[in-house]
Design goal:
Blueprint (H helix, E strand, L loop, with lengths): L6 H12 L5 E8 L2 E9 L16 E2 L4 H15 L26 H5 L11 H6 L13 H8 L16 H15 L3 H10 L8 E3 L5 H6 L10 E2 L3 E2 L7 H5 L9 E3 L1 H7 L1
């Protein structure tokens, strides 16, 4: 149908693109059930070879992976009795062998009170280690699990709220342990396929060449020119999720504007 447009939002988007803050944007505003603004702006990257974006264009959803991916899957399982969010992390196997995980429950991960630091930064040390050939694939996960046992808590569990990538990274592993399959597959099977959203929302596993080939015709919006990998386009921006092979509980999902809206 006809796009609904608000002139003030159009101006803000024009300024953002003119200042090269972003090359493209997809914006939707609702008041109740009424769409008051829905529009697509710009091109999928700066410079030569760029393409105009539309309602099929895909964005790196970054930390929206927390509520739309791992968080939603955890609540679905909890609602169906397949996951007790009062369970201690020590019940979920390899990454959680240390004594400290007996004092952290799944619900603490969900509300950011588990005591983990906001960020980890393990990817940087792994890049400089003998493990660097495994970075960007699931083969690095045993190393991540081993290192996770050594991670120092920033605060006592259950006492302080600290928005944490690390907590949701751990939640992804809890879900994988509970379901016996990788997070991207579990989310697709349990939520995205039943809602017919699997083409609009998904993870991009970096070591799945067949899946990435299927995505070659899709338009991905670039996130930034990165010192790590050059222009990031169709590859997760978050460095920890990237190091883990593109699938993580805290970041890694890509999606269209309408896919996000329908899921929400």
């Amino acid at each position: 149908g006809r796009e609904h447009r608000d002139a003030g939002i159009d101006r803000m988007m024009s300024v953002g693109m003119h200042q090269k803050i972003f090359s493209a944007a997809a914006v939707m505003v609702l008041k109740g059930d009424i769409v008051v603004h829905r529009a697509f702006y710009g091109r999928n990257k700066f410079g030569e070879g760029s393409k105009s974006i539309d309602d099929k264009s895909l964005f790196d959803l970054a930390s929206l992976t927390k509520p739309l991916g791992s968080g939603l899957l955890a609540l679905l399982l909890a609602g169906r009795g397949a996951l007790d969010i009062r369970s201690h992390l020590s019940q979920f196997g390899e990454p959680f062998r240390h004594e400290k995980f007996k004092h952290i429950t799944v619900d603490m991960l969900l509300d950011h009170t588990a005591g983990f630091p906001a960020l980890w930064g393990l990817w940087e040390s792994l890049e400089k280690s003998s493990e660097n050939t495994k970075i960007g694939t699931r083969a690095i996960l045993p190393t991540y699990h081993k290192q996770f046992c050594e991670i120092a808590l920033a605060t006592e569990p259950g006492k302080v709220t600290c928005y944490s990538d690390v907590g949701f990274l751990a939640l992804g592993w809890v879900l994988e342990a509970a379901l016996g399959k990788s997070l991207d597959v579990a989310l697709r099977e349990r939520i995205l396929v039943p809602m017919e959203l699997d083409r609009a929302l998904f993870f991009v596993p970096l070591d799945d060449a067949k899946f990435r080939k299927l995505l070659a015709a899709r338009v991905f919006v670039a996130t930034e020119e990165c010192s790590r990998r050059g222009l990031l386009q169709g590859e997760v921006h978050d460095p920890e999720a990237w190091a883990m092979g593109g699938v993580a509980g805290h970041a890694g999902m890509f999606g269209t504007l309408d896919g996000v809206w329908r899921l929400v």
